[in-house]
Amino acid sequence: MSTHRPSRSRRLALLAVVAVAGIAAPSVAAANTPATTDTNRPTAVQALDDTYYQDAMGKSGPELKAALHTIISDQTKVSYDEVWDALKSTDEDPDNPSNVILLYSGRSQSKDASGGNPDDWNREHVWAKSHGDFGTATGPGTDLHHLRPTNVTVNSIRGNKDFDNGGQDVPDASGNRTDDDSFEPRDQVKGDVARMILYMAVRYDGGDGFADLEPNDNVDNGSAPHIGRLSVLKEWSAEDPPDAFEKNRNQVIYDSFQHNRNPFIDHPEWVDSIWK
């Protein structure tokens, strides 16, 4: 594991959130609220905006995207082998610490039931690793902000399809649908999927020796460094705002593993600010 860590001031943001606000994850700031001027905002939001996100506040569009890229690129990287244990923490079932929650099916399954058998869980790349051909390389191939535990069979059905509405029901994964070129996750995680895809587009912009990942409005992207459908992903993000599980996951990744955040979980309104 790399020893690269974010600046001390950004690390202190989390300490302020936990010590002052007494909560596990920050709530969401009101849309377009400038930093440091609204005394009615929750302390957790103020702490993050005044420290971790300070260089992004007041920006929009390409300037906001560039600022967020710089902020979230300051991270500790994990190896693909280390992802197994990391997911046992990031996706732990809050009602059963021996289990993880599988992304698409929503099933609570033993942390030990991982592997390659049809009923096991494995490591799903929500931004399909063939879209940009980054494989399992340390970086986009191991970034916990888009790696999730999923049922092996359901993962295979999703494959490297783009995201869109429609299709036939996915067996053993109620609420998910698929067709020849797209996959629609269940309603409870539509926003999660969208925010993971958009995180990847901001984090990986052509530097680090990897492709410039960008969403588009197509569903036939193949191995190009694109995933669609952007218009649908934006709808999903708006319709399914971050819940407690997603916020906690963001916090665990920040606390214990990569020490960076998915900004669209903390500030969902930034989706429309960047992709208008």
TrEMBL record:
Family matches, as Pfam families: Endonuclease_1
> Per the record, which residues fall in region Disordered?
155-186
List GO molecular-function terms, semicolon-separated: endonuclease activity; hydrolase activity
Point to the regions of Basic and acidic residues compositional bias. 177-186
Show the InterPro entries listed in the entry. Endonuclease-I (IPR007346), His-Me_finger_sf (IPR044925)
Q: Which domain of life is it from?
A: Bacteria
Keywords tagged on the record:
Endonuclease, Hydrolase, Nuclease, Signal
- Give yes or no: UniProt keyword Oxidoreductase: no
- Whether Hydrolase counts among this entry's keywords is yes
**Which interval of the chain is the signal sequence?**
1-29
- Full protein name: Endonuclease I
> Which species?
Streptomyces violaceusniger (strain Tu 4113)
